[in-house]
Design goal:
transmembrane helix; UPF0750_membrane; Alpha-Beta Plaits; cell membrane; N-reg_PII/ATP_PRibTrfase_C; membrane; five-stranded mixed β-sheet
């Protein structure tokens, strides 16, 4: 009896994220990006170029028309759930882009305008991507090409954005295209921060002969979980113990200090994580 409630809650949550992110993106696009004749990447960028050159249709209308073939492509190759959310995102974004007309933010410096647009639009795009869908555009094309041809999504985004900016430089002006690079870079960095979260976790791998003391320190002093693996040194052939834990940036100095106070000869590897999901089960496991 509880599963429909959880599914309904998930549905409302994802629709809210798509709607809120679309509103924020449209606010930045219509108050900064378009009034200052800057360009964007992807399908939004093509829609903006078409609006600049043929202004009888809004950016939202062009965006909707451009997304129709992409939506049909995704409907054939991708999951029903993802495309259902994407259909909603595509419709709500196109509608909001045509209806929302916020006041133009007055900025004389195009670099400041590009930075401001990047912060606002990147935040909106990041919120949309935290849902289980998208607002259409390059997301659909990138996923399809990745699954069917093995092309990395980053390559698709980079290539398409570059082509859009080059085309914009030809039709709108090279100076505006160069300013728009600042917008694309800023929005992508902000988007990454929103998707991954501002409190990004660190994955710490520790090899030590005094692993039990280090595990106790992590569990009882840092209050973090840990997983212990058994391995063999490739050169010596001796058995080694590997500890894995996930921590925050603020806790990382304490962990390093505690590890080396226990074992000055410990070997530590620290990796950046994009996202950490799931719940911790038990105190620690040995594999």
């Amino acid at each position: 009896m509880k599963k429909p409630e959880l599914d309904f809650r998930s549905l409302l949550s994802n629709l809210f994220l798509i709607s809120a992110g679309s509103i924020i993106f449209v606010m930045g696009m219509n108050s900064v990006l378009v009034p200052h004749r800057l360009l964007s990447g992807g399908v939004v960028g093509i829609a903006i170029i078409l609006h600049y050159t043929m202004p009888f249709l809004s950016v939202g209308a062009y965006y909707f028309l451009l997304n129709i073939p992409l939506f049909l492509l995704g409907w054939y190759y991708l999951s029903f759930r993802f495309m259902a959310y994407t259909a909603y995102g595509m419709l709500i974004f196109s509608l909001l882009a045509s209806l929302i007309r916020p006041p133009v933010l007055p900025m004389d410096d195009p670099i400041l305008a590009a930075l401001m647009a990047g912060v606002i639009c990147g935040t909106g795009a990041g919120i949309v991507l935290r849902s289980l869908g998208s607002a259409g555009g390059l997301d659909v094309l990138a996923i399809v090409l990745n699954r069917r041809l093995g092309i990395r999504m980053g390559v698709v985004y980079t290539l398409c954005n570059a082509l859009v900016l080059i085309g914009g430089g030809f039709f709108i002006g090279m100076e505006q295209a160069l300013y728009s690079i600042i917008y694309v870079y800023t929005s992508s960095r902000v988007l990454d921060a929103v998707v991954a979260g501002f409190n990004r976790r660190k994955l710490v791998l520790i090899i030590s002969a005094r692993w039990q003391e280090i595990v106790d320190f992590i569990l009882h002093r840092i209050h973090r979980g840990a997983t212990v693996f058994r391995g063999i040194g490739a050169y010596t052939g001796e058995e080694r113990t590997l500890i894995m834990t996930v921590t925050t940036m603020t806790e990382l100095p304490r962990i390093k200090e505690g590890i080396f106070s226990v074992d000055p000869e410990a070997f530590i590897v620290i990796n950046e994580t994009l996202e950490v999901l799931g719940k911790r089960h038990g105190r620690y496991k040995v594999y």
